[in-house]
């Protein structure tokens, strides 16, 4: 991946997660460490067994509720009787929330950015050049500082000539100015169109033209891309660019001379010299048209109101305990994704610090970090982070592979520590004792936690289902609970959210306090609300977080959104879920992923892919099922490291990785692994791919084969690898 990656973490960074530095300390404990570990693990259970007998009564987290609309099984959060709509009285819009929070916390540090000290380019053995940067400490702006800059930018937009009846777009990677530009637009009731920095030219042109954007706010490095497509952009009048350290900004040719072009700081100065009174929006006003990098076709714009945003913020504030202005949040995911925008809006409401980083500079061993200097996590020492499951899966795999590589005492110590702490997390009384926990933290897990700064106490995870193994790994090794979130752009990330004290796996918690979740029977797929032992059906979200619909697409809006007889708005997600007795939701399938095979069997592609991902050989996988056959096939992007290690041990010779992927022996080895994990996951025979194709190139957001949340784009993959799929069925 290049430096302009707009996805949510990437393979160059993840390859560096399993490095020697955080494991070296374990070696020093040697046999004494093992002896101490054995004593701890044997004696403490015996000494404390009488103290921790009995089971804790299961907590009721969600309760059934009567609602309007289509018949189904509906649940609300047990903490509320009525849905919450605002985080506090008067915060009915994001503009109001921003102003009130900034004034309340005016002297507190808010947005932090690292200063670029130096950068250099190094050449790898294969001739490729890589940029390495040395970044300084975080430099902070207070809430009061940021509020002043936002007011100036809002005024500057008007003075620059932005038509207040038109939309502005932000096309940039995540940074402090992104969020300030957003709030500046909100202050003048300007709707913001958000676009992924990794979006291709066709999708970018489509988004800007469809939304009739008149002012485009972007990174300075995006100016060349805009220059190239300028003849296709119909409505752009103004371009505002963010200045970058060491970046030349004079890169726009005469073909864009029809545009007014100014830097972010120039717009601020314009507004400072000539202030304009604010024009506050209403709660039903459209705050954001968020273009998704969806899994099919051109991106769709989702119309998100101010009321949707503050409702989700209010819901999350209700269920995450003990957060305050003392907390620190590390922002590195794309703000054009609903998950990150919701998280940063939540941080604003809490009044804590927010430090910006990037995927390539996140850790000390990040692929863009100069050797010997600090990554973002080490410099910031965050207490809060967000992540998507694919990232946590790879963090777990990276650490475990490194442990396996060292073997010996290191592996023995890690295995003992992991089992003991896992027992504690899963509720076994003997592992919960404070002294033993501290022992393992010092002996083993302290260095693992140092990867992410050493102070993480809560991880917010969303975007896709999280595997049980990865959830437990974070619980144990990072010592932090994971709040699993279920939501969509269409519900402004508001849906379900697991409680901090819920240590079960495979579930996404009860509904957020701002919405209801209802299951509606899907007869064709065999999912019914009358199913035993748990009701099952399509997940439908209703409440204050449900958005206004799709921009300029009433037909699609009418398909997916319904308003019931009580005036409540519902969104039909297409996901299939089931409710556990305590009111927690589990995602079990997706309607679009279900294919009926030749002999009448139904196969859930997403379920099979999730199971196959457990193979150490799998970097990414797409399962394909032809309805005219009685078996499925799969495209697999294998892990370079794992497959090459196997080839070396098996004595397989090859010129490059592409040739290795074509080797019959390699295909057979990976297929055997898939069969093994498939059987372990209790897949039926027809669900385990009968044939596979190994693909050497990774699937990235830039290639258009996965979304920014790293979910596969099934239709694009089917189109690109049409010939390979046909050969698998030949």
TrEMBL record:
InterPro entries: AMP-bd_C_sf (IPR045851), AMP-binding_CS (IPR020845), AMP-dep_synth/lig_dom (IPR000873), ANL_N_sf (IPR042099)
One Gene Ontology term, aspect cellular component: membrane
AMP-dependent synthetase/ligase domain ranges (all copies): 131-551
Reactions listed under catalytic activity: a long-chain fatty acid + ATP + CoA = a long-chain fatty acyl-CoA + AMP + diphosphate
UniProt KW keywords: Membrane, Transmembrane, Transmembrane helix
Pfam families, per the entry: AMP-binding
Alphabetical list of CDD domains matching this protein: LC_FACS_euk1
One Gene Ontology term of the molecular function aspect: long-chain fatty acid-CoA ligase activity
Keyword Transmembrane: yes
Gene3D superfamilies reported for this sequence: 3.30.300.30, N-terminal domain of ligase-like (3.40.50.12780)
Membrane-spanning ranges: 29-52
Protein name in UniProt: Long chain acyl-CoA synthetase 8
Originating species: Morella rubra
């Amino acid at each position: 991946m290049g430096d302009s990656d707009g996805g949510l973490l990437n393979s160059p960074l993840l390859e560096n997660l399993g490095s020697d530095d955080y494991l070296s300390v374990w070696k020093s404990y040697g046999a004494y460490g093992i002896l101490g570990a054995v004593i701890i693990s044997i004696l403490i259970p015996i000494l404390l067994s009488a103290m921790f007998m009995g089971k804790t009564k299961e907590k009721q987290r969600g309760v059934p509720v009567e609602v309007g609309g289509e018949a189904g099984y509906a649940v609300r959060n047990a903490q509320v009787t009525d849905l919450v709509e605002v985080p506090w009285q008067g915060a009915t819009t994001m503009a109001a929330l921003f102003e009130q929070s900034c004034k309340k916390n005016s002297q507190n540090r808010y947005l932090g950015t690292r200063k670029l000290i130096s950068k250099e380019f190094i050449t790898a053995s294969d001739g490729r050049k890589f940029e390495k940067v040395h970044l300084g400490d975080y430099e902070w702006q207070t809430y009061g500082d940021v509020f002043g800059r936002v007011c100036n930018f809002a005024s500057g937009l008007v003075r620059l000539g932005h038509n207040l009846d038109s939309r502005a777009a932000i096309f940039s990677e995540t940074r402090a100015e992104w969020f300030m530009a957003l709030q500046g637009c909100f202050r003048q009731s300007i709707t913001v169109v958000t676009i992924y920095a990794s979006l291709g030219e066709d999708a970018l042109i489509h988004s800007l033209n469809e939304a009739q954007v008149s002012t485009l706010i972007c990174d300075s490095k995006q100016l060349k891309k805009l220059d190239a497509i300028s003849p296709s952009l119909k409505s752009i009048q103004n371009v505002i660019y963010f200045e970058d350290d060491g970046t030349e900004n004079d890169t726009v040719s005469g073909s864009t001379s029809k545009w007014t072009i100014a830097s972010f700081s120039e717009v601020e100065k314009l507004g400072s010299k000539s202030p304009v009174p604010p024009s506050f929006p209403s709660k039903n006003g459209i705050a954001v048209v968020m273009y998704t990098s969806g899994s099919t076709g051109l991106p769709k714009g989702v119309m998100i109101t101010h009321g949707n945003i503050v409702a989700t913020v209010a819901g999350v504030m209700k269920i995450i305990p003990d957060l305050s202005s003392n907390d620190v949040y590390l922002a590195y995911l794309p703000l054009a994704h609903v998950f990150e925008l919701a998280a940063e809006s939540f941080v604003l409401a809490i009044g804590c610090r927010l430090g910006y980083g990037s995927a390539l500079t996140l850790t000390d061993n990040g692929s863009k970090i100069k050797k010997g200097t600090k990554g973002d996590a080490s410099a910031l020492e965050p207490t809060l982070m967000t992540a998507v499951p694919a990232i946590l899966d790879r963090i777990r795999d990276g650490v475990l592979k490194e442990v396996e590589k060292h073997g010996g005492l290191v592996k023995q110590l890690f295995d003992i520590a992991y089992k003991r702490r896992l027992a504690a997390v899963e509720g076994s009384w003997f592992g919960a004792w404070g002294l033993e926990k501290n022992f393992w933290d010092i002996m083993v897990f302290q260095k693992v936690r140092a990867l992410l700064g050493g102070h993480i106490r809560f991880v917010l995870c969303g975007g896709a289902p999280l595997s049980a193994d990865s959830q437990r790994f974070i619980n144990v090794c990072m010592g932090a609970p994971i709040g699993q979130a279920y939501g969509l752009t269409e519900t402004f990330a508001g849906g379900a959210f697991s409680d901090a004290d819920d240590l079960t796996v495979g579930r996404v918690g009860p509904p957020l306090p701002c919405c209801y979740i209802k299951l509606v029977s899907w007869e064709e797929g065999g999912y019914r609300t009358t199913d035993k032992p748990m009701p099952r059906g399509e997940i439908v979200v209703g409440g204050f977080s449900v958005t206004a619909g799709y921009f300029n697409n009433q037909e699609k809006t009418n398909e997916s959104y319904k308003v019931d007889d009580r005036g409540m708005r519902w969104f039909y997600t297409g996901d299939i879920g089931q409710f556990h007795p305590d009111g927690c939701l589990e995602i079990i399938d997706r309607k679009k992923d279900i294919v009926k095979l030749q002999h009448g069997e139904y196969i859930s592609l997403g379920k099979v892919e999730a199971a196959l991902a457990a193979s150490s050989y799998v970097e990414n996988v797409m399962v394909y099922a032809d309805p005219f056959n009685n078996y499925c096939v799969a495209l697999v992007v294998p892990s370079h490291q794992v497959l090459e290690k196997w080839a070396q041990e098996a004595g397989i010779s090859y010129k490059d990785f592409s040739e290795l992927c074509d080797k019959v022996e390699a295909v057979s080895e990976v297929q055997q692994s898939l069969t093994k994990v498939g059987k372990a996951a209790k897949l039926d025979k027809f669900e385990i791919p009968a044939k596979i194709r190994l693909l050497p190139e990774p699937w990235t957001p830039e290639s258009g084969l996965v979304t920014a949340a790293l979910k596969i784009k099934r239709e694009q993959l089917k189109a690109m690898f049409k010939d390979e799929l046909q050969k698998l069925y030949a």
